[in-house]
Design brief:
The protein is an all-alpha fold and about 70 residues long. It has a domain of about 35 residues. It is about 40% helix and about 0% strand. The radius of gyration is 17 Å and the shape is extended. This is CopG-like ribbon-helix-helix domain-containing protein. Pfam families: RHH_5. InterPro entries: Arc_rbn_hlx_hlx, RHH_5, Ribbon_hlx_hlx. It comes from Eiseniibacteriota bacterium.
Amino acid sequence: MAKKKAFALRIDPDLFEDLRRLADAEFRSVNGQIEYLLREAVDRRFGRRKDGLDGRSQPDSMPPPASDDGEEAD
């Protein structure tokens, strides 16, 4: 299993309870549910789709990555 980064998370008790209910409904732990929701949000932000194809290469709020020659990619 891949090593995961552990960190403390302070969260509103009502939000935690909502997450717990979601996790229970989807047969996940609360930690697993948080990771699932974060992954879903990050993938959506970067335009990744479940079928492996990219809708967009980068979100609008981030500059495009630099190319190998140091110039910005189009």
